[in-house]
Structures are given as structure tokens and as C-alpha cells.
Design a protein that fits this description.
By secondary structure, the protein is of the alpha/beta class. The protein is about 35% helix and about 20% strand. The structure holds zinc ion (ZN).
């Protein structure tokens, strides 16, 4: 069994379709979504319907929560808030209700999935270093947990201590714990514009990152046509 794990799609349909095609070519039969289906880019409804129709296991991201509610977005950064206001208008009440019902944490096969961290999933804390990862590991009861939220692919490992491992693939060893950020499909922030996702190959216990080119010009044109902030079109080309 080979599972494709991907999240932070952020309404980028071209990136999502490219990831799904690559995953199929790589022999993935199962899919898991790390959340943040919507927000920032111009195809929230289409991405939501693609995820929902496929019935993949999915966990809720902060943008999914913010798009589903009516609460004020004033405390958010202005660009993200503008995109979320626009996103709320693009989704039907029924689609927003569906976003609201998504669970915060799931267990799939032998691993756990969460958008941010397991210690306080509803606080949407960012894991950017091993100290942040330590808090998560205290609440991680499976060897392997996948997450997203920072849009930066990362691997944290705990044996006698916690460390960050820089690798494009890693073999999951028994007795160790792994907290793997699958990166972002629709708005990578590690300086590489290509869509990012992970393949977990169960027979070999191997987790591998994949980077996939997509039709970014179309995505940028849709952002501009929608009247979304120009910086959103620029940042996806820069991977930041
Ligand atoms: Zn996100």
C-alpha cells in the first residue's frame, strides 16, 4: 500500500490536480488530506468538492475553520483575511457547514494526522524547530504523525532526544517517533514553488517527499481575475 499525504492546498486547483496525477503515477492508491483546503488562492469550491467527493480522510486546518465561520478576521494578517472574506463569499452555506464538521485529529492505518500539533490542535501553533516538536511528541501515541500548517516540509525524530532530519526520504524505525510536515500543495514557503506532498510506502516503511510542477500561470491568472491581493499571485511563484 502506498498512501499520498498532502495538505495546505489553499484553493490551488492546478497544484492539487498535478499532485493527484503524480501520486497516481507513483502507484498511490490511498490519500490523506492534512487540511487547509481553502484560503489564499482562487478555487476554494472546486478544491473542496474534489476532496469531499473523494471521501479521503481529512483533518481541519485554520483556514477551513475561518472560512466556515462568521467571526471577525481582524486579528489576522490583512492579506489572509481579505482572501478568507472572499472565500466565504465563494462557498455555499452547505459547503461551509461541511468545513465546520471536519475533525481536528484522525488516526489512519498506523499513523496520526493533525493540521498543526497534537498538544493543542485548536491553538494552531506552528512547529518550526525541535523545541516546538517536543510538545507535540508528548501527545503522539503512534510512531508516525503527519502534519502541515507551516507550508515547509520537515522531519522531526524522537529517540532519546528530539532532532530535525534533513532528508528527501526516511525509513521509519520501530521504537522511534516521527513527526513529518508534508509541506504545502498550493502555497509552498520553503523557496521552491513546486507543489509538495509525501508518499508513505507501508511495505518498506518509507516516507518520501515529492515535488511536482504545475500550471502556475493559470493559478496566478485566476487570482488576478478574482481580484484577490496581487501579492498572492507573486508569492506562489517565489515559494514563500
Ligand atoms: Zn495553510
Amino acid at each position: 500500500m502506498r498512501i499520498a499525504l498532502f495538505g495546505d492546498i489553499h484553493a490551488n486547483l492546478e497544484a492539487l490536480e498535478a499532485v493527484l496525477q503524480d501520486a497516481a503515477e507513483q502507484g498511490c492508491t490511498d490519500h490523506v488530506c492534512m487540511g487547509d483546503i481553502v484560503g489564499y488562492n482562487a478555487d476554494p469550491a472546486a478544491c473542496l468538492e474534489r476532496v469531499r467527493a473523494s471521501d479521503w480522510p481529512v483533518v481541519k486546518g485554520n483556514h477551513d475553520e475561518d472560512a466556515s465561520g462568521e467571526h471577525s478576521l481582524e486579528s489576522m494578517n490583512p492579506v489572509a483575511a481579505a482572501a478568507l472574506e472572499w472565500t466565504r463569499d465563494q462557498l455555499s452555506l452547505e459547503q461551509r457547514d461541511w468545513l465546520r464538521t471536519i475533525r481536528m485529529v484522525r488516526q489512519v492505518e498506523d499513523f496520526t494526522v493533525v493540521h498543526s500539533t497534537l498538544d493543542q490542535p485548536q491553538s494552531w501553533n506552528y512547529v518550526t524547530n525541535k523545541f516546538d516538536a517536543m510538545s507535540n511528541f508528548s501527545y503522539q501515541f503512534t510512531n508516525l504523525c503527519f502534519h502541515g500548517h507551516t507550508h515547509v516540509p520537515r522531519i522531526f525524530v524522537r529517540d532519546s532526544r528530539v532532532s530535525e532530519v534533513e532528508a528527501e526520504s526516511i525509513v521509519i524505525e520501530p521504537g522511534m517517533k516521527y513527526f513529518v510536515n508534508t509541506g504545502s500543495v498550493g502555497q509552498p514557503r520553503d523557496g521552491d514553488w513546486r507543489a509538495c506532498y509525501v508518499i508513505y510506502d507501508l511495505p518498506t516503511s518509507t516516507v518520501s517527499f515529492r515535488r511536482v510542477e504545475y500550471d502556475i500561470a493559470t493559478t496566478q491568472q485566476k487570482i488576478r481575475d478574482a481580484g484577490l491581493p496581487e501579492v498572492l499571485a507573486e508569492r506562489i511563484a517565489e515559494g514563500r
